[in-house]
Amino acid sequence: MKGWVYVLTNREMPGLAKIGYSTRDPATRAEELARGTTGLPRPFTLSYEALVNDPSLVEKEVHSILEEYRKEFQDSRSREWFRISLEKAIQTIKSVANEILREDINPDIDEQDEISYDEYLRAAEQGDAKAQTMLGSMYEKGQGISKDYQEAFKWYLKAAEQNDAEAQFRLGSMYEDGRGVAQNDKEAFKWYLDAANVERQDHLEAQFKLGLMYEKGRGVRQDSEEAVNWYRRAAGKGNAEAQFRLGLMYKRGQGITRDDQEAINWIHKSAEGGYIIAQVHLGRSYENGVEQVLRRNVKTAFRWYLKAAEQNDAEAQFRLGSMYEDGRGVVQNDKEAFKWYLKAAEQGNAEAQCLIGWMYEDGRGVSRDYQEAFKWYLKAAEQNDAEAQFRLGSMYEDGRGVAQNDKEAFKWYLKAAKQGDADAKDKIFKIIKEQSGFLAALKYRLSGKV
To answer: Which of 53, 120, 404, 422 shows the greatest Cβ crowding within 10 Å of its Cβ?
Structure first.
């Protein structure tokens, strides 16, 4: 399940960084926070994003490494906020992503089992560029020898200087990530450019990387038109990631005239190429429709969500659960809804966790179990889900699934109310009215504290 690990910052919260993950464009997440009622000052700035194979696992490891820097708010918002510099946040993400989840760019490089390290070394020392690249790969991945990024860099450099495109690409990657050499986006750009050279080498992944660097202004002056040019080169030869980014550029009118039809065309190609993020995006497009371009078709939306969900994408699993629950694009089935919501919930999707709690509480698609309901509401509430916080308050108030506790009930109602939950606000008003009278409750409401 590919997705992004991202860093958000906020000028009202200096010295703090929010590190999270998303299977959607992280810029969308920043916009959602800006529109929402999180209780945190706005707006948010997307300061860094990294596309990785398993964003949930990378985020978890990064959070574990940075545990001592975690910001302690008085509520659950602290889960993803850390009192660290932006540079440290970025470096930690890069280090983790490349240590445990680095994607193989060229599968042929891994087909080395029948040839020993010594044979590669002899050929590499005699100047064989392919052997040098293979030796670099062995050191980079720790295959048949202890992992050593500096040695990997050394051998990639030798091959790259002989114009080996794969070595040039890998060298660019090491400069970009700061593995085996000091991090340097300008050097990364230089080597990606050599590998991407259409006349000599035409390395598709390098062309995609150049598009990203031009789009984000990393290692080179930001230039959306050049980003489009490089995305188009790689996309035209079948690179699914480049096809998706090109589609987004058309959708936003970034570096090219906005064209929703072209956007859908390229995102569709990417989805058909197996790119999970594109499959989810296409599912949303069919579910909602695109004015004058794509007619709403919930059955087709269901099909694309299913493709991504079967590859363990949490958002797609959540959307499938919703469609089964409502009977949109598929026959209504609470048990199937529960199954897919649970898969998403187990990956940390807060909305899915809240809905699993509700299904356990109501006995929908599963036997009623208040303790399980409480458990899942708590998971979602700790991620600042207002609906889950309200329902947790209700369970504490009534003593369902947990020992009755008015103080805990009030605490969770207050958290939800501060996020704008209308039911929670009414509960707070009612509790204060019962304890201190109508005027006290009215005064509290008018104070704007909830």
So the answer is: 120
In-domain check, residue 428: yes
- Is there a domain that residue 170 lies in? yes
For residue 147, CA distances in Å to 102, 135, 206 come to 13, 11, 24
Contacts of 224 (CB under 8 A, 6+ apart): 214, 215, 249, 254, 255, 256
Same domain, 121 and 168: yes
- For the chain, the straight-line distance linking the first and the last C-alpha, in angstroms and rounded, comes to 39
Closest listed residue to residue 233, CA positions, set 268, 264, 192, 261: 192
Give alpha helix (H) positions in 197-313: 204-216, 224-236, 240-252, 260-272, 276-288, 298-309
Q: What angle do CA 282, 287, 21 make, to 5 degrees?
A: 55
Number of domains in the chain: 3
Instruction: Show the tokens assigned to 224.
Output: 């959306």
Same domain, yes or no: 121 and 173: yes
Query: How crowded is residue 406: how many other Cβ atoms within 10 Å of its Cβ?
Result: 12
Alpha-carbon span 292 to 363, nearest angstrom: 42
49 beta partners: 6
* pLDDT tens by residue, the chain, 450 residues: 567 788 888 777 777 888 888 877 677 666 666 554 445 555 678 888 777 777 878 888 888 788 777 765 544 444 678 888 777 788 788 777 765 544 433 444 444 444 678 888 999 999 999 999 999 999 998 888 889 999 999 999 999 999 999 999 999 999 999 999 999 999 999 999 999 985 667 799 999 999 999 999 999 999 999 999 999 999 999 999 999 999 999 999 999 999 999 999 999 999 999 999 999 999 999 999 998 899 999 999 999 999 999 999 999 999 999 999 999 999 999 999 999 999 999 999 999 999 999 999 999 999 999 999 999 999 999 999 999 999 999 999 999 999 999 999 999 999 999 888 999 988 888 887 777 776 665 666 666 665
Asked, for residue 208, whether it belongs to a domain, the answer is no
Q: DSSP states of 45-57 as a string?
A: EEEEEEEES-HHH
